[in-house]
Amino acid sequence: MNKLVVGLPLVLGLGCAPSGSTAPPAETAASPAPADQSAPSSESETAITENDEPPKEGTTPVAVGDQQSEDLEGGGGGDAQGPSRPVPRVKQAKAQVEGELFPDIVRRIVRAHINEIRYCYNQGLQQHPTLEGRVVVQFVIGPDGYVESATSFETVPADDSAMTAVGQCSAERVAQWRFPKPADKGKVVVTYPFELSPQ
């Protein structure tokens, strides 16, 4: 009994581990944590701030490839910062159609080209800002649907050189139009009036 009591403190005092167990590893100095690679440096943040400035207030981003179409409505050619001019009115009046082509079809084609007549009217307004009246264009549609001839049949007022020029310009435009082929493959004579007013 005395031997067992004496021997036990000796084993504990020496710090020997019991059989079957391993000594704990020596404590090592903690290595520094790797720097966060995802966090941008102060220089990177400065570069991003300088190059990617937010748009200023009151500005609208413009998409690449956007193009401004040609203005045939009567407001083109002026200062972009100035007030826009009112769009001149070009009203189709009742037309006279002689031949095998429905008047509604003729009216639909003319409506599709109405900005060309408005363009001619804009030219007259540059000479005479208060120009107002009527232009009558008479044209002949051939068997193939193309306009064979077009003339300024009437202008009101007749003695106004600016309105006369509008009528001639309108006839030149109409001469380039194309309509459906007449049902009987014949010719169609159309007399078409346009009422013009500055606004």
Structure description:
With 199 residues, the chain is α+β, with helices and mostly antiparallel strands. The protein has helices spanning 2-14, 42-51, 103-112, 114-127, 161-174; strands at residues 89-92, 96-98, 133-141, 147-156, 188-197. Strands 1, 2, 3, 4 and 5 form a five-stranded antiparallel beta sheet that branches. A hairpin with a 5-residue loop joins strand 3 and strand 4. Helix 4 (114-127) packs antiparallel against helix 5 (161-174). The longest helix has 14 residues, at 114-127. It is elongated, with a radius of gyration of 45 Å. Mean pLDDT is 73; it is low at 1-82.
Topology:
Layout: H1 2-14, H2 42-51, E1 89-92, E2 96-98, H3 103-112, H4 114-127, E3 133-141, E4 147-156, H5 161-174, E5 188-197
Antiparallel strand pairs: 1-5, 2-5, 3-4, 3-5
In short:
This protein has 199 residues and is an alpha+beta fold. The protein is 31% helix and 18% strand.
Structural class: alpha+beta
Span of the ends, CA to CA:
127 Å
Helix content range of the residues, please? 25-40%
Shape: elongated
Number of DSSP helical runs: 5
Nearest-integer average pLDDT = 73
Radius of gyration: 45 Å
Question: Largest sheet at a glance?
Answer: 5 strands, antiparallel
Beta strand count? 5
Spans of at least 5 consecutive residues with low confidence:
1-82
H/E series, N to C? HHEEHHEEHE
Q: What portion of the residues fall into strands of 2 or more residues?
A: 15-25%
